[in-house]
Amino acid sequence: MNFKKIASILSVILITGLIVYGYILYRDIFGANTKFNENELYVYIPTDATYDDVKKIVSPYIEDMNRFEMVANKKSYPDRSEKSGRFLLKKGMNSNEIVNSLRLNVPVNLAFNNQERLENFAGRVGSQIEADSLSLLNAFRDSKFLQENGFTEENVLSMFIPNSYEFFWNTSATKFRDRMAKEYRKFWTEARLEKAKQLNLTPIQVSVLASIVHKETVKRDERPKVAGVYLNRLQRGIKLEADPTVIYAVKLKSGDFNQVIKRVLNKDLVTDSPYNTYMYQGLPPGPIAMPDITALDAVLNPEKHNYIYFCASVTNFGYHEFAVTPAQHEANRQKYVAWVNQQGIKR
């Protein structure tokens, strides 16, 4: 066999080998490498995870880990700034796309509203980001943070303005808290601060009153009117006598915040608690729930009227009947009591 023929055969073998190698390399890098049925899913990689941890977390969703690791090594994944977070995997992704996706931390749209207590709020947030409820509670109650920002454990719930916020899943408890303090300061614009001042209220007091308004009525269009009643009482030195504060006091004393109280009884009115506005003058020491923005703005923009009383309406359900005099209020109250008795509501 002459040299040219040998060279020709070797060239064919070499070219074939390169083609095969190229195909294998292309397949390893660009061939589909997932094994889940969903169109897409998220994987969550905790803070301080090692590369071995990452491989354990993603392996249930990857067809061939050797192919994945080969591409990861070639792309120098991960470096020290990577690994933890929330990452989107899509069905049919190749190894190259998977590695790229694991470098793109996808934010969470974190939402919360109407939490009754700091503990409930911490649980709600802890179900949406990596930080657990205990670490969040400790961050919220940190004495240095409270002092520096003018809050107490009783009123710090007013710092959290209900809304939808974008966070990375691996946000720490302290970073979440500090971001919420920033959002709180952003909410209290010069215009809102001036309105609070005109009402002779601090932002925290506005939040406390708004929490009562929020609990009194779910009708947003009625909230400014209800806020007007309570502001009239405050300005005239009359006790607020707000049923939601009594309900909160009863739950707080029993430790059972899951109980449903639809009817306030006479015995409830003597519950000795600073949250019971039938017993104590002025505002409670903190919010009885997390007021939403409509309730906060209702207090800042109250309806101006002379009403001192209101009672749930039995003809326009969800709304209330308002009164100026005790006699008018008593007539409205008797109608409501008769309706409650007719419905068989005892508690």
Quick recap:
With 347 residues, the protein is mainly alpha-helical.
Plain-language structure description:
- The chain is mostly helical and 347 residues long.
- 48% of the residues lie in helices and 9% in strands.
- It has helices at residues 3-30, 51-58, 65-74, 95-101, 118-126, 133-140, 143-149, 173-187, 190-198, 203-216, 223-235, 243-254, 293-300, 326-343, and strands at residues 40-45, 85-90, 108-112, 163-167, 309-312, 320-323.
- Strand 5 (309-312) and strand 6 (320-323) form a beta hairpin.
- The model has no long low-confidence stretch (mean pLDDT 92).
State the main characteristics.
two-stranded antiparallel ribbon; 6 strands; mainly alpha; two-stranded antiparallel sheet; 347 residues; 9% strand
Structural topology:
Layout: H1 3-30, E1 40-45, H2 51-58, H3 65-74, E2 85-90, H4 95-101, E3 108-112, H5 118-126, H6 133-140, H7 143-149, E4 163-167, H8 173-187, H9 190-198, H10 203-216, H11 223-235, H12 243-254, H13 293-300, E5 309-312, E6 320-323, H14 326-343
Helix pairs in contact: 3-4, 5-6, 6-8, 10-11, 10-13, 11-13
